[in-house]
Task: structure prediction
Amino acid sequence: MQRNTSHGLSAMLVAGVLIVLSAHAAAGQSPAQATRTDAQGGITVKVVFVTSTYFRANPTDPLTGKVDPERNIVFAITLDTHSGDLSKFDFVKNVTLRNDREQQVTPSRWVATADGAHHRAGGLVFSRTDQAGRALDAQAKVLELIVRDLGGGPERTLRWTLPVE
Result:
């Protein structure tokens, strides 16, 4: 009986994972396509390129209703560390978005969903226009999120090939 219960729980866990992955795939945005991770200097940065498809697949995400990926470019970001204090990191000041058309944008706002010293999470919102007020080039094939001055480590570059749906 114990063995059957264990197999049943394992089967349920696998089924749950498959349901979540299938929801992403059916909606058009796979977790692997949208997520980038960088771990340096004891700090892990996990970034998800957020689209409307992402919210349809994740309706209970804490950012749902707080950011609009139709009108803005949005990234869900999580910072984790076992030592040090992440609460002082300024996302708006230290993160830049650039494309392969040499356009660059700074964030318009940070929407926090968790703000602890060792764990921070939220959404970083960018305008769809560059610093000069020009619309970001729709022909861009690459977006890079540049994170500077995080934990005294080197600059981090997280890259997406477009389109991410």
Remarks:
- The radius of gyration is 18 Å.
